Amino acid sequence: EEVKSQVLELAQGRYQRVNHCHLTELLREREGITLSRSSVRRILLGVGLRSPRKRRPPKHRSRRERYPQEGMLLQIDGSRHDWLEGRGSWLSLIGAVDDATGKVPHALFRYEEDAQGYFLLLCQIVADYGIPIALYHDRHGIFKRSKSEPETLEEQLEGRRQPTQFGRLMEELAITSISSRSPQARGRIERLWGTFQDRLTSELRLAGAKSIEEANQVLSDFLPRYNQKFAITASEPGTAYR
After folding, report:
1. Alpha-carbon Rg of the chain, whole angstroms?
2. Does the pLDDT at position 146 exceed 90?
3. What would the DSSP string read from start to end of 167-218?
4. What is the pTM of this model?
5. What is the rounded distance in angstroms from the CA atom of residue 162 to the CA atom of residue 149?
6. Which of 67, 79, 170, 173 could cross-link to 72 by cystine, CB 3.0-4.6 Å?
7. Which residue would you say has higher pLDDT here, 111 or 182?
8. Can you tell me whether residue 141 is helix, strand or coil?
9. In sequence order, what are the residues at sequence separation of 6 or more whose Cβ sits closer than 8 angstroms to the Cβ of residue 46?
């Protein structure tokens, strides 16, 4: 009963609005209370406290098979969201997820989704792991020039569109650039944003983060723990990073 009361007090106080699974982990890591997720869920549901994260029913959609080796394909994207829940300005989280393992090699907060943010993202990934074989991204103007944009005389003479600054970076590093046509095609990183908007937002709230600097500090502590829990082993050993 004492433990039950403690769990309820924390769930309604310090860890308010944290989902049941995440709460179970935080109780173990920060409070020294080791309970199963089902036990925590039973305690909370007993007083009508439902998990704040609403889970959608699974859709009958065949998922593309993962690439076999880490570093073969990274999905990159940005997520504009009220990450600080009104304590500071809206931010854009720019990140990458490895297709083979679900590992997040790097991510960073920016005020806007911009080319410099993607440069910094790739710079850190190359420094930590190496150069990935391919990047899978949306059709944002950061990655690829719009077809509606008129061609210059130089482009007409060359018979090809000049790359964007980030496109030039991918060419010089011999990274294959793959554009997707819909968010569903980039399912892994879209699901990642859903998880982050739940878990990372809770971590930022618990840390009282109010600025982009504080948010990036929380993120740097969060990513290793996220990867330890959610990343899987690739079907082929080794790495394709160059």
Report:
1. 21
2. no
3. HHHHHHTTPEEEE-SSGGGGHHHHHHHHHHHHHHHHHHHHHT--SHHHHHHH
4. 0.81
5. 11
6. 67
7. 111
8. coil
9. none
**Secondary structure letter of residue 70 according to DSSP:** B
Q: Which of 45, 2, 1, 208 is nearest to 23 (CA)?
A: 45
Among the listed residues 139, 137, 163, 165, the one whose alpha carbon sits nearest the alpha carbon of residue 74: 137
Residue 190 φ/ψ, nearest 5 degrees: -65, -40
Q: Which tens digit of pLDDT belongs to each residue from 8-21?
A: 888 888 888 888 88
Q: How far apart are CA 89 and CA 112, in angstroms?
A: 11
**Angstrom distances, CA of residue 216 to CA of 8, 14, 91:** 30, 21, 11
Cα(115)–Cα(166) distance, rounded to whole angstroms? Answer: 7
Whole-number percent of the chain with pLDDT over 70: 90
Q: Please give the Cα distance from 110 to 118 (Å, whole number).
A: 10
The single residue listed with the structure tokens 């433990």 is 3
Helix (H) or strand (E) holding 135: strand 134-137
8 A C-beta contact, residue 196 and residue 84:
no
Q: Which residues contact 165 (CB under 8 A, 6 or more apart)?
A: 115, 119
Average confidence score pLDDT of the chain? 89
| Confidence check: pLDDT of 188 > 90 | no
Angle (deg, nearest 10), helices 165-172 and 115-128: 20
The SS3 of residue 117 is helix
Among positive and negative, which fits the CA dihedral 26, 27, 32, 35?
A: negative
Confidence label for 63 from pLDDT (cuts 50, 70 and 90): low
